[in-house]
Amino acid sequence: MNKPEAVSSKSILKLAVPAIIAGIAEPLINLTDVAFIGNMEQDAVASLLAVGLVGSFLSAVIWTLAQTKTSVSSIVSNALGAGNIAAVQTLLPQVIWINAVLGLLIYLITAPLASYIFSLYNAQGAVLDLSVSYYQVRALGFPITLSTFAIFGIFRGLQNTSRAMIASLCGAMVNIALDYLLVYGVGDAIPAMGVMGAAYASLVAQLTMLAIAIYHLYKHTAVRLNAVVRKPHALLVQHVRLTTNFFLRTVSINIAMFLSFRFATGYGKIPGATHAILVNIWLFFSFFIDGFASAGNAIGGRLLGSKDVEALRNLGKKTVTYGVGIACILVVLCFSLYGFIGSQFTKDTAILSLFMNSFWLVLLMQPINAVAFVYDGIFKGWGEAVYLRNLLFLLTLLVFIPTLLLLDYLHFELLAIWGAFTLWMLGRAVVLAFKFHSRLRAL
User: Fold this and answer.
1) 121 — phi, psi (to 5°)?
2) Contact at 8 Å (CB) between 111 and 135?
3) How far apart are alpha carbons 415 and 419 in whole angstroms?
4) SS3 call for 186
5) Contact in structure between 49 and 269 (CB atoms under 8 Å)
6) 33, 179 contact by CB (below 8 A)
7) Which residue, among 12, 67, 29, has the nearest Cα to 300 in the 3D structure?
8) Per-position b or e across 382-416, b if 16+ CB within 10 A of its CB
9) For the chain, what are the domain ranges?
10) Alpha carbon of 292 to those of 32, 183, 384, 386: distances in Å?
11) Is the dihedral of CA 96, 101, 107, 110 positive or negative?
């Protein structure tokens, strides 16, 4: 592929648009659950808080373990750029099965400890009981989701995100339909199951995505799940090393997310439920913008493999421009629909009022997020796991936690949490942008 094609707008959008749709599937499932649960007639506040807590923990675990997707994408895209894709052929089924087993182990470890886990989030009484029940069904999806993500990583490394998009779209549609049927019920035919209905809907949606992903894997690639040789692939050690560092990087994100929910629930049920809505919207926006990071990840890894410095510079410029542009469009759209958005998630006037007073800060940080996510994606494609790990640890320790403690001391409550998130993301954006251009000069 020539240089203009490698960094053309068409090549970026061809990867980014399907990646956006594929990437928002998991947060969309959580966001749909929050919307349906928040509008229930009974126990809406406790149920909303429970779903928010579980969604936060699920996202933390999935983010951490799904770094195998980033690792395999980096390895595959580098092999593709070097013209040696056959060298990684037998690695891929090993990665998929490792993910499935890892997901099963996480379920077996965490499900019996669910009550203890969510008590750490300050959940009590009915909120704790609902959290445990909801989690023990949702967590069955760990091996399903992690296997799906490994396959998505293969597709991304092969410079194709549309197959993941198709699987994700189908899963999201199944989840919305089943949420409506199972949460509220349909007359005498289907009893209203509330929180548990949302849990079962999400599980079926995850199975749908895996089935479609496997179909495309068999139809469009030479990878076969039964082609696992007993001897580990030579690149498996590199995959594990990359994944481990990406794991550790994500631990820092999870610490920030855990502290945000611990402080929010400590302020009371209303702030906790409001924070659950804000976090799920933030995650949805983040994965939306992250589509351009996925394009940077896939193309950046390939260009590094072919040592094309000028094309890398153009890639960074174009992906950041697109990412920030989309973020600004989202901000303008959400400000114009400010009150309407909040009313879609709750009928509780106290939650809605607090949402209206806090949502603006979540919106204003989106362009900053776009810069951070795009450069983060490019560095992942380069295999810079150690640098990303160290950066997140330092920013969490030196920026997020001190800012949260200071603003909490000043009684800003939810604005303390989101102020800390804003400065944390600003630090990521500035440092990664500087490092990117320094790295290109060194190359």
Assistant:
1) -85, 10
2) yes
3) 6
4) strand
5) yes
6) yes
7) 12
8) bbbbebbbebbeebbeebbbebbeebbeeeebbbb
9) 3-442
10) 23, 34, 18, 22
11) negative
Which residues partner with 186 through β-bridges? 190
Confirm if 33 and 59 have CB atoms less than 8 A apart.
no
Query: What are the average pLDDT values for consecutive 10-residue runs of the chain, which has 443 residues?
Result: 53 74 71 82 83 82 70 74 70 84 91 93 89 93 90 83 86 91 88 90 94 92 74 69 72 88 92 90 81 70 68 84 91 93 88 94 94 86 80 95 97 96 96 89 74
Q: Residue 112: how many CB atoms within 10 A of its CB?
A: 10
> Rg (Cα) of the chain, in Å, rounded?
21
Q: Angle CA(155)–CA(177)–CA(161) in degrees, nearest 5?
A: 10
Closest residue by Cα to residue 200 from 29, 74, 347: 29
Query: Looking at residue 419, what is its pLDDT?
Result: 97
Q: Do the beta carbons of residue 133 and residue 127 sit within 8 Å?
A: no
Measured between alpha carbons, how far is residue 164 from residues 73, 97, 169, 278, 408 in Å? 13, 18, 9, 26, 41
Residue type, 204: V
The per-residue pLDDT for 422 is 97
Tell me the CB-side half-sphere exposure of residue 200, using CA atoms within 13 A: 11
Q: What is each CA distance from 249 to 128, 192, 271, 300, 425, in whole angstroms?
A: 29, 41, 28, 20, 14
Amino acid occupying residue 424: W
3-class SS of residue 364: helix
Number of H helices, E strands in the chain: 20, 0
How far is 133 from 233, CA to CA, in rounded Å? 40
pLDDT for 1: 40
What lies within 8 Å, CB to CB, of 104 at 6+ separation is 142, 143
223 vs 77, 91, 218, 243, 436, CA distance in Å?
15, 9, 7, 21, 34
Closest among 130, 118, 136 to 48, alpha carbons compared = 130
Q: How many CB atoms lie within 10 A of CB 333?
A: 11
How much is the pLDDT for 233? 67
The dihedral region occupied by 228, where left means phi > 0, alpha psi between -120 and 50, and beta the remainder, is beta
Instruction: Tell me which DSSP letter residue 221 carries.
Output: S
User: How many other CB atoms are there within 10 angstroms of residue 51's CB atom?
Assistant: 28
Helix (H) or strand (E) holding 436: helix 414-442
Burial of residue 151 (number of CB atoms within 10 Å: 0-12, 13-18, 19+): buried
Residue 251 near residue 324, CB atoms below 8 Å: no
